[in-house]
Records
---
Amino acid sequence: MKNFSDLSEREVLAVAIAAEEEDSRIYMTFAEDLAERYPESAKVFEGMAEEEKKHRHMLLEMYEQRFGPNLPPIRRNDVRGFLRRRPIWLTTNLSLDTMRKEAATMEFEAERFYVKAAEQTTDVHVRKLLVDLAEAERGHEHRANELTDTLLTPNARAEEEKTRRRMFVLQYIQPGLAGLMDGSVSTLAPLFAAAFATHSNFQTFLVGLAASIGAGISMGFAEALSDDGSLTGRGSPWLRGGTCGLMTAIGGLGHTAPYLIPDTWPNAFLIATGIASLVVFVELWAIAYVRARYMDTPFLRAAFQIVLGGVIVLAVGILIGGA
């Protein structure tokens, strides 16, 4: 993948052209899916698709004037910093709220892209076009929110609060949840393997401590290097990386801490293991709740996925440790 700052002016325009075409097709897919259920809302998406086509035509004209008819084969998936989207538009009968959220995210990302691209280009005419498109995309985001009238209650939060919540999820909830899931699940196997292999609380604590801190460092760097935040608005990569790394370490240390119980206590190993198992149960249900609350995942499905995965990893650790 290329860094956004390394793109040439020709590549910036090519990415923009491809992005406008893809967004137009996504909006038309939404419109077709909504045509029977919400015909008025479908018309809104159709209008948004037509405007994306106009934007593509404007960009293509500018490109051909400056660089000729041949577009380089580069798309936004080839550029570091764009959000990796789930292809939810391939699913039929999506809820109107889900489509509205996806459209708002798409328009927000497009606006950020044009603002950054305008700052990078040196051609006056290209910069003006990109600034105009950024303003148009900002207007699209507000237009997309017209869809809330069909679904949301009068107590729906103001637009500023929605944007703030969306960015809060992108900047903190997503990396924090990824870290908590990794820390809570990935450290189960080494921790309980050490516990049942040694029956020593102190040795088990050292293994859990090393696994938790190591996983935290690894996940922190992975998150920080995955996205510089320049296009997505997800904030500082090191802040996100720190959040992810910290939550990873916390996820592992939660069920490691009970093994601080001194080995000299009566039944120390059984007590520590019982408390650690209870902590694991609480961690997994907390993860399921966060996924249901912020990631639009049904709670029972999230609980089943997380608890099942945790139980499998836990069983693997116990079997290996007891071998």
---
Amino acid sequence: MATHHSRSAARLMMAPAVVLLLGWMLVPLTMTLYFSFKKYLPLRGGDLGWVGFDNYVRFVSSSAFWPSVLTTLTIVGGVLVITVVFGVLLAILLNQPMWGQGFVRILVIAPFFVMPTVSALVWKNMFMDPNYGLLAHLWEFFGAQPVEWLSQASLQSIVMIVSWQWLPFATLILLTAIQSLDSEQLEAAEMDGAPALMRFAFITLPHLGRAIAVVLLIQTIFLLSIFAEIFVTTGGAFGTKTLTYLIFQRVLESQNVGLGSAGGVYAIILANIVAIFLMRIVGKNLDK
């Protein structure tokens, strides 16, 4: 058992990292709160004094606020559904014995290490370009009219691009969970005559409950701040303006730091609401 002296020594050694982490988190948050109550226009007069909650009222009453929140949640929900469903299928497939299994797993996981801006550019120019993209040639091969993805199906295109990036992460977590499944349970169910679909529904899927909950939580935290893919592809047009992109417009394009800071506070509130909701789901799965 750890003694009082050893626990004190552990706390002392961890203190610098904890202080650094708290400073890394609290300083930007404090500055955001500070500027959210001020009218600060760097290129148009600088600090123009305190305005109270005026920035919050202006931001939430903007006609673009609620559509941006809805767009954010739509993208997050769409990506989560795709990555979890296809992640489970890919994890089951990769768990089967095959030739070159290690190489195949590396290929499946590789997209996760590609920078978001790079992957968005690849999808925009190599796949979704209506004239020279791979999908356009595929459509023409079957005699169909090429689709202008980023204007006609802009939101679906963003979901597709982001799902491609996050699918390897979900697959890796779910594959690890499947590998921890007791094979004797599956063998016993198979010997009892249970079909493959029943074995998946009553043995494999319940076993993946915790892993799915973790995937949902981690991906949601990162997906709520999606920005690079939208900036590179649509620039917020065609109904793809998320809350993060709206904040970017208010700060950089409008040069209104106070209004953008108020939007940042709203983004933090939204992220915490979603995180609390997901934590309750995760907690239920972890308690089972």
---
Amino acid sequence: MNRNPMTLELSAQLTRRALFGRGAWGLGSAALASLLGGEASAAPGSALGEGLSHHTPKARRVIYLFQNGAPTHVDLFDYKPKLTEMMGQEIPPSVQGGQRLSTMTQGQTSKPLLPNITEFKRHGQSGQWLSSFMPHTASIADDICIVRSMFTNAINHAPGITHFLTGSELPGRPSMGAWLSYGLGAETQELPAYVVMTSRDKEASCGQIFYDYYWGSGFLPSRFQGVKFRGSGDPVLYLSNPEGMSSEVRRGILDDLKSLNESRLKSQGDPEIATRISQYELAYKMQASVPELADVSREPSSVLEMYGPDVRRPGSFAYNCLLARRLVERGVRFVQLMHAGWDQHRNLTYQLEVQCQDTDQPSAALVKDLKQRGMLDDTLVIWGGEFGRTPFLQGDIKDRRNWGRDHHPRCFSLWMAGGGIKPGLTYGETDDFGYNVAKDPVSAHDFQATLLHLLGLDHTRLTFRFQGRDYRLTDVEGEVVKPLLA
């Protein structure tokens, strides 16, 4: 029997892995069509889930100002006069309740209560309690919603950050930005839907590491992972043409590669080939869009002054905040800023103020900037870390220079603004010591469910089948915190 040589070649290439890969792709497409009620379908090469919406969204985009290292809630957002009254006394056993501590204070024989090292005052018509270290955040008190009753289970940084950003303490799940890119798609073809930028405190006092899986796509197609913009040199690696290569030559090479990849995609049906095609095209477009984006010199002097003196230094938190506004203005769906330096185990008395000076003014300026441009209503801004810090002292109370606070997952604070969040609200309460949630607890999964809801997504329906299971950002938990909604 005569057989086409091309058929024989393709049959030989169709390995067991390829067979199951192609089958999984088809099943995934069918699952998506079912999810959308038959209104949409996905074929190899299309963007799974793009344009998905379960209800009318309040927000179109997100800027997440993630503060690596865990800001101390009792010194910044959660005023506790009881700590001043009982300074130096041991935390009552009934309050600690036998809860586990990190290895850094687990063996500490004395755990004296330490009052807030900053002055607290009420601000705005809402009367938000805020630290004197955050005067600029105080100026937007009526624009932000402070959640004081956050809690989590993770007690160390990497699992805590991973849990907040991916819904699991273990690496490997898609990050929040990847889920949103998968579910909602992109609003621009000139820039990625999901951009990440990192910065750290000037003194490099904390050894926090930025792991790539904090913005990874996990088991989602890799086109949904975050694109990291660097703080020095070219914002994106390998974006510029090699020396001696013109744009015309690069365009010709990309066209040839596209033809080869499309042929391979047609025969194999591998979604990663579709990713490769789309990312090559995006990179080519970014050669024109990114240099203009990264040049903040044309911003009005009034805007630059609003973000503070560090805004002209590429890679600083202030510069990244301004770039975040420019990114969402150009259609980027999710911008994730990660700033390290809040891990104050032994340097609370001097490093906390430095850290606030780095982040307070740019964070508030971002909210004001979005508001004056009419963008705050549909842009959700989030400020917070992976957990809080202990109300008792880490160290010797006689050695003020080396005062510190340990990790504390039992309760902590974050704030949000815009994007359908109720402004001027303080939600939730902790006990008199700032140690346990006393009212209206909000878990990381509740926070994620609420964020997705604001963007028009039902967290129980935004799923992806992987290894025989339907996964979602909120795992099997999470409730929308409706009192937070405007």
